[in-house]
């Protein structure tokens, strides 16, 4: 019986490693190709023939302005994640633990909003940004996206799973509703909040449709939009394009590696109760 369990576990690990390799293969290919010279494409070369020239060409070329695009992406992503942490957690707390008129209606509206593709409201948002004079500014890239109904719903489901008796005990000990929220609820919700941060970071960092719609000035491009223009210009130079892919992908991978433990815990615990 013990031997059978060990064999099953060994097979499971082998399958997991195999699937991990399959999913990593595109990134490994992109990473390897980004270090190749144009003449060495689609060939296996010695380590000594690998070069950083593609990255140097990207970073030091004023026409691409990678540092500026990186700054724009970091600024946009930081503002949006900060807004989501504040607004989503407070909204989820109110819907999960507080009683007020219209609470159920608001919950239904949030769930209903999740079913509407963002493409359907992009044009009205663009028109509103144009009327406010916010096009080609960070305001149009961030303010409409400081909250996400999906994350409000996800956090609400986790907050519901926290016993009300714990919140009541905190109130008896003299904590206000805000105090119970900041000192009891938020520390217990760390895995779910980290999950939201990772999902929001990935979605914002990789966003192309919204930044390309709201911005048309080159100096306001975010990294994905800017590198897409480089790809269109150098589509025949795969090594240069792959260097751009690696530059864009690395921050997402690093964020996941740093917070992977909390992410797995958050996925396992969010949405347990309805």
A few lines on this structure:
This protein is mainly alpha-helical and 274 residues long. 74% of the residues lie in helices and 0% in strands.
What does this entry look like structurally?
- This protein is mostly helical and 274 residues long.
- It has one domain (65-269): Orthogonal Bundle (MetI-like fold), CATH 1.10.3720.10.
- The chain is built from 13 helices and no strands.
- The chain has helices at residues 2-34, 53-60, 66-97, 103-114, 119-132, 138-142, 149-161, 164-172, 177-188, 190-205, 209-214, 223-233, 238-269.
- The longest helix has 33 residues, at 2-34.
- The relative contact order is 0.13.
- The mean pLDDT is 85.
- Structural category is mainly alpha
| Strand/helix succession | HHHHHHHHHHHHH
What's the CATH H-level superfamily name?
A: MetI-like
What is the mean pLDDT?
Answer: 85
What name does CATH use for the topology? Answer: MetI-like fold
Radius of gyration: 23 Å
Apparent shape: flat
Q: How many discrete structural domains?
A: 1
| Main CATH class | Mainly Alpha
Biggest sheet character: none
**How many helices?**
13
The helical percent reads over 70%
Descriptors for this entry?
13 helices, 274 residues, flat, mainly alpha, MetI-like fold, single chain
In terms of topology, how is this protein built?
Layout: H1 2-34, H2 53-60, H3 66-97, H4 103-114, H5 119-132, H6 138-142, H7 149-161, H8 164-172, H9 177-188, H10 190-205, H11 209-214, H12 223-233, H13 238-269
């Amino acid at each position: 019986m013990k031997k059978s369990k060990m064999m099953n576990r060994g097979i499971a690990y082998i399958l997991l490693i195999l699937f991990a390799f399959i999913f990593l293969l595109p990134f490994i290919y992109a990473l390897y190709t980004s270090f190749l010279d144009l003449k060495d494409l689609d060939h296996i070369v010695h380590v000594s023939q690998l070069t950083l020239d593609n990255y140097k060409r990207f970073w030091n070329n004023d026409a691409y302005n990678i540092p500026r695009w990186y700054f724009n992406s970091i600024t946009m992503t930081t503002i949006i994640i900060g807004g989501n942490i504040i607004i989503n957690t407070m909204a989820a707390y109110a819907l999960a633990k507080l009683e007020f008129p219209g609470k159920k209606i608001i919950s239904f509206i949030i769930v209903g909003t999740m079913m509407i593709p963002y493409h359907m409201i992009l044009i009205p948002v663009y028109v509103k940004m144009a009327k406010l004079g916010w096009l080609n500014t960070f305001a149009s890239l961030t303010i409409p996206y400081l909250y996400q109904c999906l994350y409000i719903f996800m956090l609400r489901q986790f907050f519901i799973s926290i016993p009300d008796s714990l919140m009541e005990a905190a109130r008896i000990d003299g904590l206000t509703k805000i105090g119970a929220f900041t000192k009891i609820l938020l520390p217990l919700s760390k895995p779910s909040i980290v999950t939201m941060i990772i999902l929001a970071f990935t979605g914002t960092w990789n966003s192309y449709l919204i930044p390309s719609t709201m911005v048309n000035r080159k100096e306001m491009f975010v990294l994905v939009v800017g590198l897409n223009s480089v790809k269109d210009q150098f589509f025949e130079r795969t090594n240069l394009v792959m260097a751009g892919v690696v530059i864009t992908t690395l921050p997402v991978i690093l964020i996941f590696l740093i917070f992977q433990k909390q992410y797995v815990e958050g996925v396992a615990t969010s949405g347990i109760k309805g």
